[in-house]
Design goal:
238 residues, mainly alpha, 0% strand, globular
């Protein structure tokens, strides 16, 4: 088995372990389990867009990054980015357990730690480190910087539950909270995409950053249209 395929299989296996722990230990894999355990709407592991990105998007992306750019990394770079990955993941975890008011398989105000949370901590810190190593690799091409940044941005859109929130607007599931009601969400997404624009620019120059920014604006415009215009059309048709 080649290096790239080994990374893909290993990453997917870790997500599967998270899912099994979520089902059998934390009992928050299915929406019905969340409702039974907490007695209120929340985000289940199955409905968490970030988990699907962890399984389908990131393993292939980062395996490709490792195979192509890994030979240029040295021990010092790996250690520094490993520490960055741990700090970023810790910051994300603290943000969740102190500010997240609805049940979340990755942590919220009433559940600070669990086996799925611990497994995801390992996964996220590793992948943040790999992303950092990519952006500081020598000779990153414009195309590669743009592709990696856009895929990471899309992953984080799913991870902040925007698609789930849109689907819930149309279906009004009793197990799903209003995920688009947060006033912080637009600023969070703006910050995420702005950081990706900066990183792409640092890695491959301003053209790479501009490409990422243009696509981010396009996605934001499409998202606004879906959230604001399509519900009006549905209401009119009814």
């Amino acid at each position: 088995m080649g290096v790239g395929l080994s990374i893909i299989v290993g990453s997917m296996a870790l997500v599967v372990l998270e899912a099994l722990a979520s089902y059998y230990l934390s009992q928050n894999f299915w929406p019905s389990q969340v409702m039974t355990r907490w007695g209120r709407p929340g985000i289940s592991f199955f409905a968490h867009g970030g988990m699907w990105g962890d399984f389908f998007l990131l393993p292939t992306l980062l395996a490709w990054v490792i195979v192509k750019y890994g030979p240029s990394w040295n021990i010092k770079m790996i250690m520094i980015m490993g520490m960055v990955g741990l700090l970023v993941t810790l910051g994300n975890h603290l943000l969740l357990i102190f500010t997240q008011k609805i049940p979340d398989p990755l942590g919220w105000q009433e559940e600070w730690w669990s086996v799925p949370i611990a497994l995801h901590f390992v996964y996220m810190s590793t992948y943040v480190a790999l992303a950092g190593l990519f952006y500081f690799s020598p000779g990153v091409s414009i195309k590669d910087a743009a592709i990696v940044s856009v895929v990471l941005g899309i992953h984080m859109v799913f991870g902040t539950h925007v698609p789930l929130g849109i689907l819930n607007q149309w279906n009004n599931w009793d197990w799903c909270p209003d995920l688009l009601a947060s006033d912080v969400l637009p600023y969070l997404l703006t910050g995420i995409w702005s950081a990706l624009v900066v990183l792409a620019s640092m890695a491959a120059g301003p053209l790479a950053g501009s490409l990422v920014g243009i696509l981010a604006i396009g996605l934001a415009t499409a998202g606004w249209a879906v959230v604001r215009i399509i519900p009006i059309l549905f209401a009119t048709l009814k």
